[in-house]
Amino acid sequence: MTVLSEAVLADPVELTRALCDIPSVSRDEAAICDAVEAALKRLEHLTVERVGNTLVARTELGRGRRVMLAGHLDTVPVNDNFPTRTEGDVMWGLGTSDMKSGTALALWIAATVKEPRFDLSFAFYDCEEIEAVHNGLNKLSKSRPELLAADFAILLEPTYGLVEAGCQGTMRVRVTTRGKRAHSARSWKGENAIHRLGPVLERLDAYEAREVEVDGCVYREGLNAVFIGGGVAGNVIPDEGWVDVNFRFAPDRDEAAAEAHVREVFSGFDVEVSDTAPSCRPGLDRPEAAEFVAAAGGEFRAKLGWTDVARFATLGIPAVNFGPGDPNLAHKQDERVEIPRIRSCADALRAYVEAP
Amino acid sequence: MTVLSEAVLADPVELTRALCDIPSVSRDEAAICDAVEAALKRLEHLTVERVGNTLVARTELGRGRRVMLAGHLDTVPVNDNFPTRTEGDVMWGLGTSDMKSGTALALWIAATVKEPRFDLSFAFYDCEEIEAVHNGLNKLSKSRPELLAADFAILLEPTYGLVEAGCQGTMRVRVTTRGKRAHSARSWKGENAIHRLGPVLERLDAYEAREVEVDGCVYREGLNAVFIGGGVAGNVIPDEGWVDVNFRFAPDRDEAAAEAHVREVFSGFDVEVSDTAPSCRPGLDRPEAAEFVAAAGGEFRAKLGWTDVARFATLGIPAVNFGPGDPNLAHKQDERVEIPRIRSCADALRAYVEAP
After folding, report:
1. Which residues contact B165 (CB under 8 A, 6 or more apart)?
2. Range of the domain at A321
3. Can you give the residue ranges of the Peptidase M20 dimerisation domain (chains A, B) (predicted)?
4. Which of A213, B134, B279, B326 is the most exposed place for a label (fewest CB within 10 A)?
5. ipTM score here?
């Protein structure tokens, strides 16, 4: 087993490198989880719980407020980019951006800040890069929500050092049209269901997506066809057509409001919701969040993608994304992180948890 | 091997039953072809050529005009409807309608009319029910067109005893739209190719198909989507979408004119022709054709589907469909033929080829 030494735990850059150099493609996180668990268990100011390959460590200082720092342990598959290599100020390799440089910051705070101004919780979890049903944070939010209790959460996903607040929700629906089969040589005896998709596409094309400001963050929605299909045979008038539509919605709508909106857009059509994930309000009105934005330099913006911050939202915990990685490099072969950005994010986090 | 006796050859109903009771699903026509070949070779007034499982028999009476009677030997797969059974005036079973009752009439004329008023040719061919590349008549029209030479052709496909003249052409095109991929959380960075299919479908829906009279037959065209597709992933703005469109066109358009029309309908879009089969003019202005219509009762109508008559058209031979089967029963489990209709069609054919 890789041992994370005190020297490594004391330096966020060395710790990033050490975590990246333990292979941990999704569903193969036992080794990295063992290494992190062993490191946490050496820290007497923390209680540690392990559920599968997910760890939660907590201070119990009776501070009255609690902040959660969270990061996933897994990576997408290796793509000729393991282990890390460093050139000047840049560390290259799988996981450097998404998100072991962020996860390392959480572990570094856990190891080095023994007297934080609020109680701290740390979550290190598995299977974030695959289907949500396997996601360790998702599973814990259902089986042991008390372990995730906090007043505010920081998810150390790559944001290039900017605070990205909340997240949009996402919903997929299938819009189906129906008709009547006939031989295409006698098409007037049938009713063409594919032709009936025309107005569905026209409504999508004409759709004007909102830009919404929530707690000072601007979210831009989107309603888009992502798949289309239909057809029986080359000589048959088709009796069914469908469009799969993805709605990305701002945090001023919950899932029910999002569904009602989509049904209104496609009124007169058969609409079925196939999957949905909630939005998350930025929560920057909370003092813990506002203090964090200040510590991180005062700038913030809306997170446009969907991230695990929404899992905290479902538990009523405001959450932001904040990490040194570049989100544009996530899942890329040439994934890398700027070492100075690891250090500046580390400084911001430390200032936040240590400030009087 | 089934032997088609003189008694069977002398009765179109018995001959229909005998042909139906030899299994001959497409690509398994050797046995039926052997039986028909042996019967033809016993007839001294005919020359017989066999190419694969396709037979051509001809009189050589120096009549100056020649009429072709043609029928395919194969059927679609068995569907719990083999062998035949007869109830009262109805013969049930695979092939009774499509088209062994018609093929039997050609063989019956071959066996029983030794002094026709024109020279006669007979074609019995394989693989009509599967891809055109296997079709025996199609292959012969390319490899041995001289065997098919005639002034007029009657294809004994099911028409319920009506003369169905010519046929519509059929063309399939793919209309493709393109866009730009992006993550669906940032959809404004992409261009949705599926949304761009909207105007294609609108044009299809608004299309007003022509009804065209050619040589006294009315053809009704049709332009229809038969397949639609597109999409990359549930969270990606798609960069390609496509609609497969089937154009059924009247015999006043050849394939080039049909293609030009489709390109005009979809002007501004990327249109690619994927396959095409020619139309066939009814050719009822030819004396051989007019005489046949008169012999068959004077009524005729346009054939709306595509049939092998178009193979004769490409050789410059006018052709009609005429057979006792009901086209609505083709390929159905409850396929059947009315025995009186076999006899009335037989009478009409015989009157036509024997009239002074």
Report:
1. B215, B217, B282, B283, B284, B289, B300, B301, B302, B303, B320, B321
2. 6-167+280-353
3. 168-266
4. A213
5. 0.79
Check A237 against B224: CB less than 8 A apart: yes
Q: What's the length of chain A?
A: 356
How far apart are the CA of B83 and the nearest CA of chain A, in angstroms? 28
Is any Cβ of chain A less than 8 angstroms from the Cβ of B202? yes
Any idea what the CATH number is for the domain that residue A179 is in? Answer: 3.30.70.360
If asked whether residues B152 and B35 sit together in one domain, one would say yes
Which residue among B242, B277, B312 closes a domain? Answer: B277
Instruction: Write down the pTM of the prediction.
Output: 0.79
Burial of A217 (0-12, 13-18, 19+ CB in 10 A): buried
| Per annotation, catalytic residue among B98, B119, B126, B128 | B128
Distance from CA of B293 to the nearest CA of A (A): 24
With a cut of 80, say whether residue B356 has pLDDT above it.
no
Instruction: Based on the fold, state whether residues B123 and B215 are members of the same structural domain.
Output: no
> Which residue is it, tokens 């049909």?
B258
Task: Give the residue from B277, B312, B329 where a domain finishes.
Answer: B277
The pLDDT of residue A304: 80
Residue of B235, B236, B240, B266 for testing the chain A interface, max A β-carbons within 10 Å: B235
The tokens describing B66, both together, are 């020649």
CB A190 within 8 A of CB A356: no
Q: Is B1 a member of any domain?
A: no
Report if residue B105 sits inside a domain: yes
A304 touches chain B (CB under 8 A): yes
CB-based contact B301:B165 (threshold 8 Å)? yes
| Residue among A227, A234, A241 minimizing CB distance to B231 | A227
A204 lies in the same domain as A339 = no
The answer to whether residue A234 neighbours chain B at the CB level (below 8 Å) is yes
Residues of A in contact with B241 (CB under 8 A): 228
Taking CB atoms and an 8 Å cutoff, what residues of chain B touch A243? 194
- Pick A106 or B302 by higher pLDDT: A106
